[in-house]
Structures are given as C-alpha cells and as structure tokens.
C-alpha cells in the first residue's frame, strides 16, 4: 500500500484529494503547512508527496528545495494555481518534479501520482538478480550466494547481458556484439574465456553451455539445475 503525504492548506481540496486517494487504494496523510510537510516527508515513511505551493509557515518551493538539499529522493507532485504556472515551472529549476495546475480533475492528479510511483520502481530496478546472484548497476556490486565478488569491467558487462536475459540462449555472436562491440566474429574464443572467468567467480552451474549455440544464465539455486550441469560437462569434453 502506497503512503502519500498531502500538503494542502485548503480544507476543501485536501478532503477531496484525500477521499479520492483512499478510494484508489492509497494511504493518505494530510498536513496543512510547509514546515510539517517537510518534517513528515523527511521521516522516510512516505512514498510520494503531493505539495501545494501556497502553504503557511514554509511555501512549497522552500519545502522542495530543503528536501533535496537534505538528499531526500521522495517523488514530489506539485499543486499550483494555473495563473502562476510559469512562476512554478521557473521555481522547479529544471522541472525535475511533476506538477498539476489547479483547478484539476482528480484523475489528472492520480495519473501524475501513478507515473511518479512507477518511476520510483524503475529506479529500484538498477539491481538485476537471478536466484542468489545479483548485480547492482549503480554501485557495480556483485553478489553470489551472499558473498561479494569483484568483476573486471568486461566481466561485469558480460554478467549484465546474461542477467538481463535469464533463461534465454545467447549466441557467441550476440555476446560479442553486446559486450565487445564486435559486429563480426573475429574467430577468437574470447567469449568462452570470459564465460570461464565468470563461472569461476559466480559459480560454475549458473552459466549453462548450449551445445553449438551459446550460453544461457540459469537459476542455479532452483531445483533441477543438476541436469544442466551434466549437459555442460558433456559439452566441455567434446
Ligand atoms: Ca494553498
């Protein structure tokens, strides 16, 4: 359940938005001034802030500026009067946050909120994982079976392509083009060499050889991966 903080001092609008949010499955909390909005938003307990610009104690611009200065990444949807829209856009400095102009239909606000919440989820997807193997694309941290592993840049790129396509067979040609940028096969065994490095670092049974075709990342922690390992060994003996 997504918790929405609503900072709005006009009781009529606050109640209309609060009811609408509740009926769409959100959990809203209403505050009537900017200082309280800032304090609540900083608690980290909210998934999104709907922020009026004209607020007592601290206006919406200052709330947003202070939140970002304090490194809060909470998504913010601004409510602003239509006739001061241009001031608002200037005040948002680059428009990193979304806005809805008053008067608005609830559906408009709802669409903005949903969009921002989706953005938020997309950010979280900088971590790719299959079973107990995970790759953090931002920190470049790699974990396998709860242990952190160091990968070279090329190994990381190869692991990333494999993790983006779990269970899918990727040909050597595809891997050469995606990881090494070759659009032809230079006739080297560089892909096989790097797959060997990755197997050593991440666990041999995670990357399956598909005979005559290429490689496939499998969930080594799931049941039934034993057969894959056998197939792999047969291929290597060849
Ligand atoms: Ca107001």
Question: How is this structure best described in words?
Answer:
By secondary structure, this protein is of the alpha/beta class. It has two domains: 3-122, Response regulator (Rossmann fold, 3-Layer(aba) Sandwich); 127-236, Arc Repressor Mutant, subunit A (Orthogonal Bundle), CATH 1.10.10. The protein is built from nine helices and twelve strands. The chain has helices at residues 11-23, 34-42, 60-69, 85-91, 106-124, 153-164, 172-180, 190-202, 226-237; strands at residues 3-7, 27-31, 48-52, 76-81, 98-102, 127-130, 133-136, 142-144, 147-149, 169-171, 207-210, 214-217. The protein has a five-stranded parallel beta sheet with strand order 2-1-3-4-5. It has a four-stranded antiparallel beta sheet with strand order 6-7-8-9, covered by helices on one side. Strands 10-12-11 form a three-stranded antiparallel beta sheet. Strand 8 (142-144) and strand 9 (147-149) form a beta hairpin. Helix 6 packs across helix 7 (172-180). The longest helix is centred in the middle third of the chain and has 19 residues, at 106-124. The protein is elongated and about 70 Å long. 26% of the residues are buried. Calcium ion is lined by residues 9-10, 52, 54-55. Calcium ion binds next to loops.
Q: Determine the CATH topology of the largest domain.
A: Rossmann fold
Supply the CATH class of the largest domain: Alpha Beta
What order do the SSEs take from the amino end to the carboxyl end, as H and E?
EHEHEHEHEHEEEEHEHHEEH
* Average pLDDT level: 85
The counted number of beta strands is: 12
Radius of gyration: 25 Å
Q: Which sheet architecture does the biggest sheet show?
A: 5 strands, parallel
